[in-house]
Amino acid sequence: MIVRLRNAPRDYAWGSRTLLAALEGRAPAEGPEAEVWFGDHPSDPAETPDGRTLGAWLADQGASLPGGRLPYLLKLLAAGSPLSIQVHPTRQQAREGFARESRLADGAARNYVDDNHKPEIIVALSEHFEALCGLRELDATHRLLDAIGPATAPLRERLVDAEGVRGALGWLLGGGGSETVAAIIAALESAQSTEFAAELANARRVAAIYPGDAGVVVALLMNYVPLRRGEGLFLGAGQLHAYVSGLGVELMAASDNVLRGGLTPKRIDVPELLSIVDPTPGPVPVVLPVAIDHGSRGIESFPVPVDDFRLLRARVGEGDESILRPTGAAVVVATAGAVTVSAGSESVVLEPGQALFATPGTEELWFTGDGEVFAAEPGGAA
C-alpha cells in the first residue's frame, strides 16, 4: 500500500529562499526554507493528503511499524547559510545522557531529547554543496594556520595530537581563547594560501555571518569538503560537522540529539560536547552510489556502516523501469523529472519535492517515467 506524504518546510534561519523553490519549480519563498521532513518523527510528522499524520493514517489502516515508529527520518535540506557546528552521540551515550537528564525539571536545558544515536548521510542535489566534516590532519592544519600568521600561535601549540585537539576545542568554545579567536578572525582578511584558498574563503564567509564566534576558528580545524551532485557524506557518532551551503537529501536515524560546537546563538554545553566528540584527525571519505541486487533492479545504494537505514536511488528514462524490493516501510522522494511509482494496482506520479510512503510488506515498488527518486528503508539488507 502506498500513500502520498506532504509537509511544510521548516523555517530555520539558515534556510534558503530559493533552493527548495527551484527544485519544485516555484517562485522564491518569502522567508527561509530549511528542511522538509518526510517521516513520523513527533517533532514534525508528515501528513497524508487528507491531513492525517502518517502515524494516524497507519493506525486507521490497521497497520503498524516494527518498534512503533520508523527507525529513520528522510529530509530535503536547503542550506542558504552555514548550519551550526554539531556532533551526535553514540547509542550508548544517548541512552545514558537521556536517562541522566530525565531527572531534570521540566523546561530545564537538555542535551538529550531521546535515547537514540543520530548517524546521518547527505547526498548533494545541487551542482555544488559545501560541508565541514571531521577534523583535518594536523600537519595540514598547521600549514593552514601558518598561512594565517602569528595570531594562530596560541592555537598551534595546542594541536600536537588528538587529545590536544580536544583540549583546543574546549579552550576555544569555553572562552579561554577569546583573544586568540578575535586575532585569528582579524588575520583572515589578509591571509593567503594557494593550498588552502577554498578554506580561507569559506572561513571569511562564515566569519561575516557569525562575527566573533569561536566556531569560526573551530571550522578552520575541520575538513572543508565540496560535493558535486550525487556525491554523499556519512557522519557517524562523534564527528564534528556543519553543512555550509547547498541542497541535499538527508537520511538519519530517528533522533534529535544534537551537541553544538559553534556558529550558533544556541547554548553550547562544552563539557558534554568534549565528552562525546571524536578528536581523531583524518579525512572523511565521499560516499558514492553502488549498484545493489537483492531482488531489485536498477537501484543504487549509498553504503553506510549502520543498520538504522539505507539510502537508495533510482534514475529512469523513457522506456526504463527500476524495481525496488523494500526491506520494510519505505519513504520515496522525487528529486528530478517525473517518476511514476507503482505498487501492485496502485500508482502515484511524483515530481520534484513530492514524496510517498510504502507500508511494510510492500513487495515491490516499480519506478518508470523520466526522472530521479531517492528511497529510504530500514538497513541490514545484503
UniProtKB/TrEMBL annotation:
Listed name of the protein: mannose-6-phosphate isomerase
Family: Belongs to the mannose-6-phosphate isomerase type 1 family.
Cofactor: Zn(2+)
GO molecular function: isomerase activity
Domain Phosphomannose isomerase type I catalytic: 3-137
Coiled-coil stretches noted in the UniProt entry, renumbered to this chain: none
E.C. numbers: 5.3.1.8
Gene coding for it: manA
A Pfam family hit: PMI_typeI_cat
Catalytic reactions of this protein: D-mannose 6-phosphate = D-fructose 6-phosphate
Enzyme superclass (EC): isomerase
InterPro entries for the chain: Man6P_Isoase-1 (IPR001250), Mannose-6-P_Isomerase (IPR016305), Pmannose_isomerase-type1_CS (IPR018050), PMI_typeI_cat (IPR046457), RmlC-like_jellyroll (IPR014710), RmlC_Cupin_sf (IPR011051)
Originating organism: Microbacterium gilvum
Keyword terms, alphabetized: Isomerase, Metal-binding, Zinc
Top-level taxon in the UniProt lineage: Bacteria
